[in-house]
Amino acid sequence: MTTSLPLPAKRTNVPPEGTRGVLIAILVLTVLLGGAALIGWLLASATARALPDAPPYMILVYTLGALLVLMPITGRLVPWIANWFYLFPALVFLIAFTVLPIILTVNYAFTNYSGQNSGNPDSGVRTAATLSADRRVVTLSETPEADSVQAYLRCRTATCVGDTLVLLDEDASSPVRARIASVQGNNVTLTAPVAAGFALADVTRINRIERVGLANFQEIFSKASSALWPVFLWTVIFAFSTVVINGLAGLILGILLYNKRLKGRNIYRTLLFLPWAIPAVISVQMWVALYNQQFGIVNKALGLLGFAAVPWLNDPLWAKVSILLVNLWLGFPYMMTATISALATINEDLYEAASIDGASRWQQIQSITLPLLRTAFTPILLSGFAFNFNNFGIIYLLTAGGPAQEGRESTAQSTDILLSWGYNTAFASAGGQNYSLASAIALIIFFLTLAISLVNFKAAGVFEEARK
């Protein structure tokens, strides 16, 4: 009796079909990319230890080289994956510009990462120091802002073992990070002697990035009345009012300009389309000049009519009105164009039949135009609300979040929306470059946007349409 061994499974060039095949291909490509990145990081780390002056971009060179080696190997192991290599650029950009920023934002939201706690040497608390003959013991002349070396260095343990002391020469141009072995009084013993060519002048500490749990969220909600709630309320009002005002203006103009009996309608369309064609940066800067309280043309015209000058950009209420008006100028051409495009899909026979039945023009609009436009306009209005909910550009360019309002945080002034509040917290000097707090604000914005979007989709019946 003879037995036959099972033949090894034959590799196939036919990729799996359907959603399962796409997911498997993406998984294989992700593993391939992750493996190449890991190899690149390991080789770059080894190069940095051997050659401290090696350029940082070597990690990209090593990663690319690893990809060139791993791709043929993966093609032999999984022959059908070659058909999916076209996804590689999209996957790289998705990870680099979407996945990685999300991961970093979530991570920073639970840390103290800021301009002060940046993981870099603290130049503000430098102190003079001397080095022992064996170049292993550093003696600090004083401990600024602290009563002990442990407190000055913000050591993780009472002995400071394993913590870092930054050594500076006279120019402080090349900081040297030294590992601490022990601390006695103002004497800090290092794990290894300092290089012979280094002339010690000062020392300082590292402002470490540490995990703080929910401290950032607690800070946000503890000051909710002066930042979160007023900013959130204005953000909703701004987005909703913009959609309503721009939608009505675009709808009315679109219906008027679609009338084939209107002479010169193409000229009117072209003129009304211009605000959308001009870059928003230019348009908003123009409106800043027009709204100038003393020299602006708007107030000059009002003065000729006998009205007092209006503080368009200097009063919290008028600044909000100014934003809505400028956003109307920027947004109505899009709504008008969308209306005209949607009207072109309506069968003219419906209007002819209504005219024969004696329906007036207004009755035709009520019974035919508006009901048929509702389906086309619903996604446009929802997307317009989502866009304006995070419309940072007009706020930043027109008012920069101002004017200041009493009782409000310096980073969350009268016209700041959620996104500009987060921007001010992260990058403006008033926010102290508090990246961790800004990341927490970004997470709150995400969940608020998600909740509002779900409510909008539910109200618009999107989920019911999807089930069909």
From TrEMBL:
The chain crosses the membrane at residues 21-44, 56-73, 85-110, 231-258, 270-289, 295-313, 325-346, 435-457. GO terms for biological process: maltodextrin transmembrane transport. Keywords: Cell membrane, Membrane, Sugar transport, Transmembrane, Transmembrane helix, Transport. Belongs to the binding-protein-dependent transport system permease family. MalFG subfamily. Its main location: membrane. Part of the ABC transporter complex MalEFGK involved in maltose/maltodextrin import. Probably responsible for the translocation of the substrate across the membrane. GO terms for cellular component: maltose transport complex. GO terms for molecular function: ABC-type maltose transporter activity. This is Maltose/maltodextrin transport system permease protein. It holds the Pfam family BPD_transp_1. Residues 232-456 form the ABC transmembrane type-1 domain. Gene3D superfamilies: MalF N-terminal region-like, MetI-like. SUPFAM superfamilies: MalF N-terminal region-like (SSF160964), MetI-like (SSF161098). InterPro entries: MalF_N, MetI-like, MetI-like_sf. It is found in: Cell membrane. It comes from Deinococcus puniceus. It is a multi-pass membrane protein.
